Sequence to fold (309 residues):
Amino acid sequence: MKVVGIGNAIVDVICKVNEEFLTQNGLTKSTMKLVDESEFKKLLSNLTIEETVAGGSVANSIVGLSQLGNKVSFIGKVNDDGLGNKYDESLVKENVTYFYNKKKEDTPTGTCLILITPDSERTMCTFLGIAGKISEQDIQEDAIKQSELVFLEGYLWDEGDPKAAFEKAFKLANKTAMSLSDQFCVERHKTSFLDLVKNKLDVTFANEQEIVHLIGAKSFDEVLDFGKNLGKLLVITRSDKGSVAIHNSEVFECESEKNLTLVDLTGAGDLFAAGFLHGHINKMSTQESLQKGTEMASKIIQKIGARLN
Fold:
């Protein structure tokens, strides 16, 4: 395997809403909020579903890598229920090897409500379900050892079982990459994330907001200095300002593509990571990897959902 992803196995439920819906339900636009099952059902009861698909941040990236012709696999916890079976089938259909043995659990498969406003921004309400209960027993050793790189998501990090799963993956991995996932994740796990970025990860993906929060930077120049001193690969997306990769003292920049028809920003970061990792594992230059990430992100934001085809 080129890459094994470990992430929240979440079924994405995509709906279009107006700004008023967010305000009425106390939601902050462009963020991810964790909700319980009853709140999830209440929100969904007033909406029309556009699309349902196997999702989760890292799973989206892994499917993107598969569509680019890479041999990839995924580890994520689902229940042996209707949504869990749908999840499994969706990945297998995308030629992703699914290293997880489903069993009957008390907790249902995780679901994420993706609310798309007219400006194409997405606001997410996630009921983690069984996905957030991943443990070291769910991490298959051979799947990790036989992959060139392990890709993790910040969304999955939590004290207890998920942390133990991460630690096991780090111990067995040949190379590790992680996405910081969300500003709220960074705020919640600042100390842990900083330790991971500095000491455990070979590649870190973040957007500008997340990395600025993580290191308490006052300007982007401070982020660049941090990246140069890190001695690892730090990849940052900056929305319409493009993207930047910092490796040792070198800084690589790539402009964002212009004049795109924005439809839905869901999966932009996930597909950017897929494009960049595709370049990285196939020995393309850092500059070419940034360009591939930009190309993938540009394609996905012009359609609904996080699947290119």
